[in-house]
Amino acid sequence: MSRKFSIFTAMTLGLLVLGFGCKQKEQGPGANEDSQSKRRIAVVISTLNNPWFVVLGDTAKARAEELGYAATIFDSQNDTAKESDHFDNIIAAGYAAILFNPTDADGSIANVRKAKEAGIPAFCIDREINSNDVAATQVLSDNYAGCVDLGQYFVKKMNQKGNYVELLGILGDNNTWNRSKGFHSVVDNYPDLKMVARQCAEFDRTKAMEVLESIMQANPDINAVFCGNDAMAMGAYQALAAAGKTDKVMVFGFDGAKDVIDSIRDGKIVATGMQFPKRMAQMGAEQADEYIKGKRDFPQKVPVAVELVTQENIAKYTAFGRESEQ
To answer: Element (H or E) spanning 73, and its range?
Structure first.
């Protein structure tokens, strides 16, 4: 009886081991890798050569990780070709979703489309693409309305008259033009406010300093500089400081970056438009999580309000947001 029981037990264990081995063979060595890829989110940022975008990328990564995903940041260095390479690598690796800050409103469409065709949704954050049928959704600052408010404050501080310069950002970025249009929708109604020069400085601090230095050689008597972002505002201030004109020329920025918030507090920069990169990045990560879990009905664009920050209300704000949100 004991011998029969031992033989039966051995045969049963053998069948169990054989069945387990077959099951493992059916799953294949790539099964676990495929499961892991579905838990990864890519964060593709236009450039990390700007503290504002570093905050955007880091916050997106952190929120994705809080939601249970592995997240990797890719730096496109404001180069659509590098961005395309990133998308190719992300698609080949089988990421579950992409939190995307585009380099170019038109040039980035093809990258989002190829990801969609590969079954990987892209969620645009801060910058948009000129297409309404390839990204899952786009979370964007209301740049136009933000610069309407900034334009009204600009008119007030200028007493409705004077000469000014406008520094534009990257020409292929819709944010550049939405900010400029919002600003001009107000300022152009005052004929005694004259724009003596408008040039591109590519959202870059050093470039802005160089551009304004050149402009001032031909236009020494300016009263203000309107800059499409805070990096350019700091570059403009540096140019004015080198020329000994910081007490004669007002500088206005847009973003809410730390150096400009500090400069407003110190009375150096007059005002900026506060975007909320942390809020946008978190929203993007949360939408990606919802998509992965089955949701599909996202609005094509989700606007995030911009707030005017001045020397009068600076106590309410800190870098990249409100004091109350920190």
So the answer is: strand 70-75
